[in-house]
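Input record (one chain):
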Amino acid sequence: MARSFKVSSLVAALALAACGGPPPKHSPVVSTSNLFRLCELDTHCPGATYCSAGVCDFDCRQDSDCAADQQCDPRGRCLQPKAVPAPPKFAGKLVLSASELALTPANPQGSVQIQNAGGDPIDRFHVVSDDPLVSVTPASGGLDVNGSVTLQIAVDPGFQ
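The corresponding structure, as predicted from the sequence alone:
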């Protein structure tokens, strides 16, 4: 029997991964969704990363990656000297253009649009796949109020 994937599993990941707050100065460029490590707290992340919108991320590796008046903390955040990181603010409202997208060996690619239908911008979202055969591009980004982005979803052609 052929395996299929549905976009509905991405809905929960998108809803949990959207947050507001100051955008990072130097986010890593990540091309696929299965490269993120899930987290709820900074302590769930390996050294030099912190928990941001449900995944481990970093803004900097050294002070020179930050603005002139900031320093790179041990978790990879650009902060004012001696500043305590603010807790994340969850904001925005993500809406999908389709509730399902069946991907099969005969049709291994598709797209879905997400839109911020809330009254606050989403400074950072991450799309996380629980299957290493599924990739989503872009896997992270931000959305202005009423802004949208089309996610390209692909399944490894070798899946059965």
